[in-house]
Amino acid sequence: MTRWFFQLFWIGVCATAMLWQTHLLLNTPAPTYWLCGFVFSSTVFAYNFTAPPRRRWPAWGFGLLAVFCFLELTIVHQLTVFLPALIWLMYYDRYRPGHGTGLRDYPALKPIAISLAWAGVTVLLPVPLNEWTGTMPLFVGRAAFIFALALAYDLSDQPYDIQHGLNTLVLKIGPRQAFRLIDAALLLTALCAGTLVLLDVFELKTWIAICISLLFSAFAIRWILAWTGWPGWRKAGIDGLMVLQFVLIWISLQL
Questions:
Q1: pLDDT above 80 for 190
Q2: Are 221 and 238 in contact, with CB atoms under 8 Å apart?
Q3: Eight-class DSSP state of 32
Q4: What HEC string does 149-200 produce?
């Protein structure tokens, strides 16, 4: 039951945490219940709609819930969802979803598509339209952070990808270069957060909290990927770095 919970729901928890993180960092209006429900439900659906039946059918139920929540969103929110949804649709082949086609068939585009979709949903979606220009450093930093986690996912999936003939950036450049790229992406996240400090968007203590989370992530990814046994726990651990970052930022704002 614990494994099933993490397989199905954990990614939705992480997406919602990233949504609220944007609210905390930019001091924007708190996400509504409908917006949180949409992000949580749509993420659960997107990551499980082709899973084995034990997760697939609940995921489709959350897909229907996501549609209901979407209809309750403002028109601006609905239009903002369009681009991430388009990226997600292009990520899969429309005839054979989940079989390594679509954008997934292009090694460099796969992690980029994932990072842009996540940044669009968790940065632009909760921010009022007239404040989007000020979110660009956070958007780039969030995309870089998710890019690093996406590469970690591909490192975890190497045996599966090789067995099924899937082409990934990690398999192209090798683990050593992949870890270097992960570190570079995490550094870019820190630099983007530093830019927001210089712009007086948030305080130095919050930047320090972000840097602590990123430094921990760099070491944790290597440690997590060294786990043996069920690969799904490695992915849950990688996703958990999003929740850790959210918690550290929340703590910094209470000091």
A1: yes
A2: yes
A3: P
A4: HHHHHHHHCHHHHHHCCCCCHHHHHHHHHHHHHHHHHHHHHHHHHHHHHHCC
Whether residue 131 contacts residue 116, with contact meaning beta carbons closer than 8 Å, is answered with no
The answer to whether residues 197 and 138 touch, using CB atoms and an 8 Å cutoff, is: no
Tens-place pLDDT, residues 156-168: 988 877 887 778 8
In 3-state terms, what secondary structure has residue 248?
helix
Check if the beta carbon of residue 144 is closer than 8 Å to that of residue 115. Answer: yes
- Which tokens in the block code for residue 147? 């890019």
Query: Hey, how many other C-beta atoms are within 10 angstroms of the C-beta on 200?
Result: 7
Q: How far apart are CA 1 and CA 237, in angstroms?
A: 17
Backbone torsion region of residue 127, taken as left when φ is above 0, otherwise alpha when ψ lies between -120 and 50, otherwise beta:
beta
Q: What torsion, rounded to 10 degrees, do the Cα atoms 189, 66, 98, 236 define?
A: 50
For the chain, where are the E strands, in sequence order?
none
| Tens-place pLDDT, residues 98-118 | 444 556 667 778 899 899 999
- Using only C-alpha atoms, what is the Rg of the chain? 18
For residue 30, what is the DSSP state?
A: P
